Amino acid sequence: MPPTAMEAIGLFSFNVALPAMLFKLMAAQPLRESFDAIYFAGYLGACLAIFAVVLLIGRIARGNIRIGSAFGAAAAMGNVGYLAPPLMLPMLGPRIAGPVAMAIVAEVAVIIALGTMLMAPSAKGEGLKAVMAGLRGLLRNPVILSIALGAASAGLELPIPAPIERFLAFLGNAAGPTALFALGGKLARLKIGGALFAVAFGITAAKLFVYPALVWFVLESWLALDPFWVICGVLLAAMPTATNAYLLAQRQGVGAEEASAAVLFTTIIAAIAFPATAWLLDVPLP
Fold it and tell me: Exposed (0-12), middle (13-18) or buried (19+): which is 32, by Cβ within 10 Å?
């Protein structure tokens, strides 16, 4: 298929199908069951810790905070939008909407804002301009908007009319297949050079092994949360690197090749690492 067709499928999934599914899932549950402030703080803290540690290692290895930030974003930004719903919904049911929404806020909104600021050129004021532009984009992001509207609907306990609910389900059911298809199309076009293997494997180790282990330690051992929240947090942290990390690095003109290699490697290895993580957590696989 031509690249334009794959891009159109990805846009439909991210801008139409995924927001419809997230809004429906969020609005259908009481807000107190979807959100947990302690969980969000713990997950966000682990996310920022991974970002900072990998950034520091990249800064020391390459002598450049911009490329270190690209590495950090690749290690902290999981494919929670595309992959989490189709993989986790059959295991844990519609209650995953809250944890997925909070992971999207942490790994998309927060990390994109930080990464944009730190990867921007060093000219005076460029970092702030980049952050403001990124924040404006996030405020128009269909996924972020669907989460906010779904949470508002749940908080106000507004019932969704049956015809609208059926239409949202019709669109939302397409989110998983189209997202996976678009992701495969993007991965098929990534080119990996031999010099990138070491960096890609380092980011892969941080993303698929260190990050989930840290989330488990924070949520289970430190905060002692309910097993459902622990399982959701660890599985979300075990998602492969999002293509957004590559797009962010490409937009800022630094670390794009390394980020693309991380996307490819983490996605391939996660095919084994993700179900292994679910097995270790004793999640009831479908």
Answer: exposed
Q: What are the pLDDT digits (tens) for 162-211?
A: 898 899 888 888 877 887 777 777 777 766 666 677 888 899 999 999 99
pTM for this predicted structure: 0.80
d(CA 173, CA 231): 24
Q: Measure the N-to-C terminal CA separation of the chain; round to a whole number of Å.
A: 31
DSSP state letter for 241: B
Domain boundaries, the chain: 33-80+99-160+186-280
Amino acid at 160: I
Predicted confidence (pLDDT) per residue in 105-128, tens digit: 888 778 887 887 888 766 555 556
The rounded distance, in Å, linking the Cα atoms of 104 and 138 is 11
d(CA 57, CA 60): 5
